[in-house]
Amino acid sequence: MVRQEVGEAVIRRIIHVDMDAFYASVEQRDDPALRGRPVAVGGSRQRGVVAAASYEARQYGVRSAMPSVTARRKCPELLFVPPRFDVYRAVSAQIHAIFVRYTKLIQPLSLDEAYLDVTVPLVAQSSATAIAEEIRAAIRAETGLTASAGVSYNKFLAKLASDHRKPDGLYVITPRMGPRFVESLPVERFHGIGPATAARMHALGIRTGLDLREWDMERLARHFGRAAAFYHGIARGLDERPVEPDRKRKSIGAERTMEQDIHHWDQALAVLDALVDRVWEVSGRRGLSGRTVTVKIRYADFRHTGRARSLPSPISSRADLREIATGLMRPFFPPERGVRLLGVTLSSLDSQEAAASGTQFALELETP
């Protein structure tokens, strides 16, 4: 993709890099006995939730966020390995060091994926596609792992593009291709449209990007509120969100929509454990600690509820976060109806250094 200008407006060149089955691939890299075999990171044989699955495991239908018991049922030969977040963080730092050779505009989404704005790169190379290829080659050479990349003129399409040729692939969506690429996709493939929203769209007869494009802003706003403008844009291949390298967070959250509604405490606790792991890992990586824990529950009929608890000082351990979240969730079980979504959020954030010194500073509110 080459740099293009329309009047004074410069068309962005965005790369989305997504590591392939990151946690599982690191484990297979470091333990030759795991290579070529179905591997699940996290969980256990009897309880817990899969944090990541190798591509060999995915062939059996094993997916991240799946209860370990279900994963074992789908793949009796599945090998469970405990997560090593210190190793994943170290590898992630290696990958980030590669990114900064090409641009300062890097927005990490997690340990294993990030957006890069290379509209004005730090290298002489003028092609975003060539930069993406160089990054993928450097990741393979320096970490022994593979990454997929998507190149496009906005974040939404770049992420769709990185998914298009996984694993170990590269795909480019040009401005000319964008609207047509979107129109044939099912809405559940759109980043930013989760299972619950996709189900609501299906009920309204919206199943593809083309269906969504036929709805004007007024109709979308009646059904989807503030998200209407985003949906209206992406249906046309438009997304004005910039890559935000220094985005400060007001909260850190994780949630999971169930493949099947859950009714029992043990099921909910297994999901909660995985959510707590995710929140704690992100907070540690970002050097943040928080004082407020919120648990969110959405039922099968889409009604939702939740509880929060604030502490006088920041939470200092994953065990404490789990204990508080578990206590907040316990009164809702057994539920009167099935639970389709659980979420955990940590807020009232400070940097860990500021928390230790008692210093307070302002944070911008994170856009949902």
From TrEMBL:
Per the record, what is one GO cellular component?
cytosol
Q: Which residues form the active site?
A: 113
The UmuC domain covers which part of the protein?
14-194
Sites annotated Substrate discrimination: 23
Q: What class of enzyme is it?
A: transferase
The record's family statement is:
Belongs to the DNA polymerase type-Y family.
Protein's recorded name: DNA polymerase IV
